[in-house]
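Cont'd.
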Amino acid sequence: MPRSVKFRKVAGGVAAAKGFSAAGVRCGLKLKKNALDLGLIVSDRPCSVAGVFTTSRAAAAPVGWSRDVVKRGTARAVVANSGNANACTGERGARDAAAMAIAAGQELEIDPDEICVASTGVIGRPLAIDKVVAGVLDAAEELSPDEDGGAAFARAIITTDTVEKTIAVRLIVDGKVVTVGGSCKGSGMICPNMATMLAFVTTDAAISSAMLQAAVRSAADVSFNRITVDGDMSTNDTLLVLANGAAGNKRITRTGRAFEQFAAALEFVCTHLAKMIARDGEGATKFVEIRVRGAASESDAVRIGRAIGNSPLVKCAIHGNDPNWGRIIASAAACGARFEPAKARLSLGGKLAFEKGVAADTPLTELEAAMKPKDVAIELDLRLGKGAATVWTCDLSREYIGINADYHT
Amino acid sequence: MPRSVKFRKVAGGVAAAKGFSAAGVRCGLKLKKNALDLGLIVSDRPCSVAGVFTTSRAAAAPVGWSRDVVKRGTARAVVANSGNANACTGERGARDAAAMAIAAGQELEIDPDEICVASTGVIGRPLAIDKVVAGVLDAAEELSPDEDGGAAFARAIITTDTVEKTIAVRLIVDGKVVTVGGSCKGSGMICPNMATMLAFVTTDAAISSAMLQAAVRSAADVSFNRITVDGDMSTNDTLLVLANGAAGNKRITRTGRAFEQFAAALEFVCTHLAKMIARDGEGATKFVEIRVRGAASESDAVRIGRAIGNSPLVKCAIHGNDPNWGRIIASAAACGARFEPAKARLSLGGKLAFEKGVAADTPLTELEAAMKPKDVAIELDLRLGKGAATVWTCDLSREYIGINADYHT
């Protein structure tokens, strides 16, 4: 797919696209005083909807509800709460997820079957549904099509995140101005195949739900599915994309130039959001881009990238600015992908560290200097084939332990 | 296989069995002053030899050498060094591994093809082979068939371990006293499929190398392959078992009572050593036993046990004495094994935490109290089938980060 598509960044996040409003309010689920914990996105007209969800066998109640909405293909709104994942909550959880949609439906005069729900936070505690329903009514009052609506929504969905995560871009599709904007949350329990991660993207592009689903799947595969903080997939991972057609472009119903342009913008937005998650990983002090090429296949490249990105030893070495290429090679060699030490070349921050099966000639002081920046690139060329993939992660610090040993049930 | 075999623990480690001597000396590879770093085991007669090795595609040079010895089936001695893994060292590494065997062969008047070698330590640095060869000569002088020989060997193979790891047992096989003893090292880069782990077991049982290999494979599968510290497999993982027949039992050449008795003792020794590694995991403050049963298959049980044991979030929760069953269920549900939340039952330290898809009635204070001991048992009954497996791990502490961020290349 050609990616020579021009777009510019704009403000507004999930409220940037025409016809969308958003809000974020406090309903009282988060312990922290004044912290927003309920977000709402509404479109002024029906949307094609597509999504990707956790493959956990204990998928949370809201995942089940939203999956059904996506199957039907049409949505008008999204209700999302933070502070409680509504996961491992049994039948009561399913009722509570439905109640979130029903409350929003009554208030907004929308069929609840066209309302997606999402939750994130503690697992295994019943949702204080009265608070959530009250929050939905408050949020409906606060809906705004402007930047502040998008910003409040972004704040309402975060948990251990240290920053809100928002991006929007504008491009021309079929002679019309199309906007794609989104927000996400995620910081721990982050791993390929959708982690404790909620991401919501809205667009005013006109596109069928089938083509939207194709674009979403493909964008997720190279963005949210290529980040890892700690190798854990969660019960709640959700990416939802709503497209309301307000841009007025000819409805995209097949592949072709318009689809490619839209897909490129969606991929850019998803990749940007995914990288923000890796950068904001729990306790992270460094952002790591792992570029694998020359693998026997793309799946081998992804496997190796993930193995390196998931290795606690590699992540600790990065934390300590240690050019410990041995741990990187050990990870790549152990993951099951094709790997021949004598062929592989590994660079750290642009400096060659390993080739021909042994340490490269680069002086250790140069390698050490290459590890010092906050952003570190690991480049591994396997010289076996054409498979390539980029994976993003962060370092592993004492702070991660603090966050996750002290965050109590 | 019936496991109603009686045996008693004895001292001596790898030197406990009849006809074996051992030594540990300092050759100067480890930076730490006075630290032993070269170990030697010698049998007074030829042994059947069996082994299990890392599946890393960048297996270290000594692994290649020892694999060949095991293929031929006969050995007389083992030379092992710590302080340098002789991994990612190319052709020079292969020459150095051979030189270790040749030096020992000359000194001991044994065919080098009957001498196993093993290395552990930093990856990617050429071995100071002169020091190693000098160490081999020193060790040959120090060989002792007594406890102190076994103890010195155990000290010589450790790296970041905080304790030496040794066990030996004695049992009656076929009317003869048989001894099985061993030592291992390992603390970080520890994961199923043999991690940065060296383990050596000696026995005076008479057994063919084919039957020995069968017993070793089966023992490794339920011991060393069921521990995890950090999910990383290393380039050097090696388990070697030498059986010299000095006990005088009828040579075991097929399955039957004698084989079962011997296999039970070997499994006990391997399991004991493996658990010592998990308990001594880098930075560990807690020892965790994960007992999975009722799985759809044994491989599902192992997969779930490993997923829980590898989860940094679960390990952090255990570090913080947090009965965070949600993270355990999330790990089990995400690993790809069959899992039905509504059927599963999870207990922490003997207290029911989760059943019927939701939190159990056990008061939080009771669950918290159950997490406080240094040894914690996680019991998960999936109620789907008969698959069962036990996996051992440790918690994840700030100290792990310290050890691995500050241990420099």
